[in-house]
Amino acid sequence: MIKNMIINKSLDIISSMYPEYDHIKLNEIRYGLESVYLSITKVVIILFITIILGIFKEAILLLLFFNGLRMTAFGLHAKESWQCWISSIILFIGFPYLCIYAQFPNYVYYSIIILSIICFLLYAPADTKKRPLVRKNRRLKFKIFTIMISFIYIFIFFRADNIIIKNIIISSMLIESVLIHPLTYKVFHLPYKNYKDYVFSK
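and the corresponding structure tokens:
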């Protein structure tokens, strides 16, 4: 497979540059490379589909706004590759269509903003079993960044005249608040607050 060839070649280069890395360290790097490869492949294919469908610009904007929150609030990841594909298609092909054609009453937008902020205050950042956020000060830092980014989005929302931009901002906040909510973790049978499984000693 192309994936294995690229990853194995990358690992060969890394191990030659850093001969002190043991197999545990190299396995960690392999996992990271696999994640990067799958993410890039998925994004390229989905964006190619959006070009065909004529929603490329909206998909890119949604991806940017969503990842702005995702970088600090984190949230669950699909357990299986096919689940990741389905969710990505829904989020980055389905939601752009919704952003183009939907227009809701103001109280709907305001409700989503308020509920999202509450979710970010209560649940951000939400870690995963493979990436537990062990350090308390790190979790606090990410929570503060998430709230700051949210308020920047809200400012843009109220300043924007374009309904598509408004919908994209609201969608990104809604998606991320769902992905960090403990109920979503429960629905997908994923462990929540994984940092509690680790004992942190300064």
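(Above: one complete record from the training split.) The chain is about 75% helix and 0% strand.
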